[in-house]
Every structure is written in C-alpha cells, then in structure tokens.
Design brief:
With 573 residues, this protein is α/β, with parallel strands linked by helices. The protein contains 24 helices and 17 strands. The longest helix has 18 residues. It is globular, with a radius of gyration of 27 Å. The structure holds 2'-deoxyguanosine-5'-triphosphate, calcium ion and zinc ion. 2'-deoxyguanosine-5'-triphosphate binds next to helix 11, helix 13 and helix 14.
Length: 573
C-alpha cells in the first residue's frame, strides 16, 4: 500500500464512523493521521520496516496496529466489520456539497439510499423533502450539489501542480544524456487545473532518463514504462508522464505532447492539406521521407504558420488567426507595472504596508494599492472610519520615505453586502484612491438577487474594479450563479474594470469570460490579492490566464503608465 492508499483507507474509516454517528474527536483523529500520511515525504513502508510508525504525528497504539495490519496483509478486520454495518458507498455521498453525515444517515435509514444514483433519484422523486429537517429548498440544494459534483473531477490546481513539475523539470535536466527538457500538456498551456503532469526530455538514449524518472523520490508506483514514454504515480496521488525523444525530433514531440488534443487534430488536418502527415516523431511526406524538427517553431514553419503560444492552443481560433497573421501580441509579466489589490495587517494581511511596499518595489512594480477590507466583513477585521484616517497618514509618511521609487495608493476592498449595498457610504468611498468591490458572502443567493448585487457595485461610480467577480474557489466552490451577460454588459457601460484574480485558488474571471470581456472592450485588472509579500509572485497565474484569454497588454490597466492609470482612476469618481 502507498501512503496515499493508506491515508484514503483512514479517511474511509472516518467517513463511515461519521455516518454511523461516532463522536467527532475519534473521526478527527483518523483524518489527521490521513493528512499526516499524505504530507510525510517518506514511503510509509520504509517507516513501517524500521518500526517507527508511532513516530508519525497523531499515531497512537490503536492506529499503529491498524497500519501494521494493513501494510502486512493489505486488509483490516476493523474496516470489514464496519463495512458490514455501514455500506461503504455511503462515504461517496459526503462529497456532495452541503450534505453532512447526519443527513446521509437519515436518508439511508429512512429511504435505504446508499449510492449517489439513489440519492439523485430520491431527490428528483421529491422523497427527501418530507423527511424531518428537510424541505423543498434543501432538496433542491442537494440536486444542485449533485450537479456540481458531476462537473468536478480528480484534477489538480495549477498552483499545486506547477511548482512540483518545475522541481521535476530541474531534476530531469540533470539526468544522464539530457540535452533539453520541457513541460508539456495542460501544464504548459497553463490550464487552471491539470489532470496529470507531462514532461519531455531530449536525449539520444532514452533508457537512463526513464530510469532516473521512475526512481525519483516520492514515486509510489510505475504505471507504465515503454520505449519513449514512462508514467508514474506519486505517494500523494499525483501522476506524471515523461516522453523522451532524440534531440533532432524534440520539436515534433514537444508540439504533440503540449496539445491540446483539439489543437493537434486541427494542425494534423492542416498538414494533410499540405500533403504531410504529422506525428510526435516527424512530418512525413507522401513519398515516406521525413522532415525532422528539433524545435516547435520549425514544425509550425513547415506548415506555413508562425509559432503559436501554448496558452492559445485550445482550438479557439488560434490556427485560423495564425494563418491570417493576426495572432494577438499576448501580455507578458514584465509589462505589468501595478498591483492594485493587496492586503496588510490593517485587515487580514500578514505583513505591514511597509513590508508589502518594499516587496512590490523589489519585484519592479511601480504602483501598489493597499486595499484592505471594509469594516462590515466582521471576520477579517475591516477598517473603521477612524482606521481609514490613520492608515492614510501611515501611507503618506511611507510615500515620503520611499520617494519616487514606488507609488502607493490607499484603496479599499469594499464588501458588497447581501442586500446589494456597499459597506461604505459614497462619501467614504470618495476618500480612497482606488476601490475594489467584491462579493464574499451569500454567494448562493438566487441568480437575480446575486446578479443585482454585482450590478449595483458595477454602476457605483466610486468603484474602479470588481474583485474576483464570480467568487469561485478551485477546486471546491462553484462561482455565484451570475447572469454573466448582464454583468458584462453593465461593466462595458459603466467602464469599471473586471479583475482577473491571480490567486491560483481563484483564477476568477476565468479564461472564457476574460476573453469575452476583453472583446467587449471591458478593461481588465490582473491582481494577486496578496495577503503576504510572497503572494506577489502569483501574478504568473493571472498573466497565464490572461494569455489563455488572448489578452494584450493594453487591455489591462495594470500595464498602463502610472500617470495614465492615476488619470483614469481620478476621472472615474
Ligand atoms: P489533462 O492532463 O487532462 O489536464 O490534459 P492534457 O492536455 O495534458 O492531456 P493529456 O495529459 O491526456 O495528454 C497530453 C498531451 O498529449 C495532449 O495535450 C495532447 C497529446 N495527446 C494525447 N492524446 C492525444 C490524442 O489522442 N491525439 C492527439 N493529437 N494528441 C493527443
Ligand atoms: Ca496532462
Ligand atoms: Zn482581497
């Protein structure tokens, strides 16, 4: 058993005990151990062989005995007895958003529901609403939860996948005989979530590279290993595959493995139209002779195209644009001059304004807006009216100290309340240099209600940016049920900027809506929403998303010259 399999076994025990009604501290203990197993960084089998199971945090005698039994026999008597009482399929039901163990127990005991399919049938048949503590509303909520569950999958957020992949890439470059290496797949296209990690290496001899890849630390199992491709699963459940090709064929290999599948299908068709067949190995002429491409640019050039940035390769018109010579001049990180959404210790940030300013300056930013939360959002200790005055004095003093090296703005991230009003009056809003308005609460309101809240904020002339417009969280929370046509139309009319929040757990707007907004002439803002100086580096995710949305620098207010940005802000309210 791998660390992850063992962890999941303990999670299953906790789930089933929860449904059975076991006290919470018992199930919490199992969950804690599961998390510690995933974070262990060592193969649990080694720890077990050394007799050191009890040294893992949270592992007492009872849990150590269970681990021992599982690692020794692959089975667990305790779990088998538990499953005889509580059907294991019930654990699946816990994945439905807003559905807890008590309700699951109720559905099971009173209706015999043990699977997701039976739950859906019971909800559709109106059988849940009559149970105690239920109603038509909570029944509809369960149906909505089932639907969102269907959309979700085992994908990994880019924010977690990219650092892991870059580490592997660095190691790969050191592997024997490797002359070049690259990321491929959805990772290279910078999709917000990835199914698995794709890596490529150029080497004359693939065997030693494959060997190094499958024996890297953290590998739990080898899923496959052939002549040009190997794939592995890590102890944390993440999967990666490596493709190794000789350097003279690296261009076709990289092009193929980058995808997307849809982009490749269209490109292969274009090749066929030109009498060539395109594979991961080469372009092949009708007479069987090969055209080898060491670089991707050569592949595209043979087909009469300019190189196409990986972020565009989704078959959303990029090949037609390349043929017409009208590919966008995509935005780059170096063009971003301003951070316009950040937090400090005045609200829920972890660093002082000074620390944030120095970090922003060190990253080459020319403008930093501190946009701490407004007073009404109780949980984050937003700024009172007196706080605003004292914070202004602090920022002015710091501005004098820092001189021309960076321009500081006093802003606020104003909460759009459940009733659609803003947390500060217009008079107070007018005191700030910049206003970001965001939804954080009551995101599950009905469509009209939640849309109207956002429209109110969009139409308020003091509001400059709508922060993380839909409120989605990756991978766990769907955005609000917004009428996006209405939102985009209102934004176009009012001139407000819509944010691409670069936090990898948000990436909100997404690439599809960001592109629509851009095409409608709506200004975009790419902000990190940094709560810590380290978060400023997350701009890469926002820039990548913007590139996937075909965004050019002029569409993004953060790229403007500081004077132009300040003039725009000044003219808005
Ligand atoms: P993912 O992993 O689900 O986030 O998505 P990708 O795009 O990374 O897809 P993956 O990992 O299944 O395959 C990696 C690349 O390999 C993909 O982007 C393009 C290429 N590829 C895979 N299967 C096919 C195929 O059937 N036809 C073509 N043309 N290319 C394929
Ligand atoms: Ca992939
Ligand atoms: Zn924020």
């Amino acid at each position: 058993m791998t660390n992850h399999e063992l962890a999941n076994t303990f999670r299953l025990i906790a789930d089933l005990l929860d449904i059975q009604g076991e006290v919470i501290y018992v199930t919490l203990a199992y969950r804690k151990v599961a998390d510690n197993l995933d974070a262990l960084g060592r193969d649990i089998n080694d720890v077990w062989r050394e007799g050191k199971l009890r040294e893992i945090p949270g592992v007492g005698k009872a849990i150590a005995d269970k681990m021992d039994e599982l690692l020794r026999t692959g089975q667990l008597g305790f779990l088998e007895r538990l499953q005889a009482e509580v059907p294991a399929t019930l654990a699946e039901l816990l994945r439905v958003p807003d559905l807890g163990p008590k309700k699951i127990n109720l559905f099971w005991r009173s209706l015999g529901v043990t699977t997701l399919a039976q739950l859906e049938a019971a909800a559709r048949g109106g059988q849940l609403r009559s149970l105690s503590g239920m109603g038509a509303k909570s029944e509809a909520k369960i149906l909505a939860g089932l639907e969102s569950l269907g959309r979700r999958s085992g994908r990994t957020p880019l924010g977690a996948a990219l650092p892991a992949a870059l580490e592997m890439l660095a190691a790969l470059r050191q592997a024997p005989g490797v002359v070049d290496a690259a990321l491929g797949g959805s990772l290279r296209r910078m999709k917000s979530t990835v199914g698995d990690l794709d890596l490529l290496a150029a080497a004359a001899d693939s065997a030693p590279v494959m060997q190094a890849f499958v024996s890297q630390p953290g590998v739990a199992r080898i899923l496959g290993q052939g002549g040009t491709k190997a794939s592995v699963e890590f102890v944390n459940g993440l999967r990666a595959q490596l493709w190794v090709h000789p350097p003279e064929r690296f261009g076709t290999a990289l092009q193929y493995a980058t995808g997307s599948k849809e982009h490749n299908v269209r490109l292969r068709q274009l090749a066929l139209d030109r009498g060539l067949s395109l594979s991961d190995q080469a372009l092949v002429r009708a007479d069987g002779s090969e055209i080898l491409c060491a670089t991707e640019a050569e592949v595209y050039a043979v087909l009469g195209l300019p190189w196409i940035a990986p972020e565009l390769r989704e078959d959303r018109g990029e090949i037609q644009a390349a043929l017409a010579g009208s590919l966008p001049a995509l935005i780059e990180s170096s063009q971003r001059r301003a951070e316009l959404h950040s937090h400090s210790t005045w609200s829920d940030g972890r660093a002082t304004i000074r620390e944030m300013a120095l970090a922003a300056r060190a990253r080459g930013l020319q403008v930093l807006a501190i946009t701490d939360h407004s007073g009404g959002l109780g949980i984050t200790g937003g700024l009172s009216l007196e706080d605003i005055v004292r914070q202004r004095a602090e920022i002015e003093a710091l501005q004098i100290e820092l001189g021309d090296s960076i321009r500081l703005l006093q802003g606020a991230e104003v909460e759009i309340r459940a009733d659609g009003t803003l947390d500060y009056s217009d008079e107070v809003l007018a005191q700030f240099d910049i206003i970001v308005a965001s939804l954080h609460t009551s995101l599950r309101q009905p469509r009209t209600q939640v849309t109207n809240r956002l429209l109110n904020a969009i139409r308020n002339p003091h509001v400059d940016i709508i922060g993380h417009p839909t409120g989605r969280l990756i991978p766990d929370r769907e955005g609000a049920d917004l009428d996006m046509d209405a939102v985009l139309a209102a934004a176009a009319a009012s001139g407000v900027a819509l944010e691409i929040n670069a936090n990898p757990n948000r990436l909100d707007l997404d690439d599809v809506y960001a592109r629509r907004a851009m095409e409608m002439g709506i200004r975009l803002a790419i902000n990190t929403d940094a709560h810590d100086p380290g978060h400023l580096a997350q701009e890469v995710f926002g820039i990548a998303l913007a590139r996937r949305a075909w965004v050019e620098p002029q569409h993004v207010i953060n790229t403007w010259q500081p004077d132009a940005l300040l003039a725009w802000l000044g003219a808005r309210s």
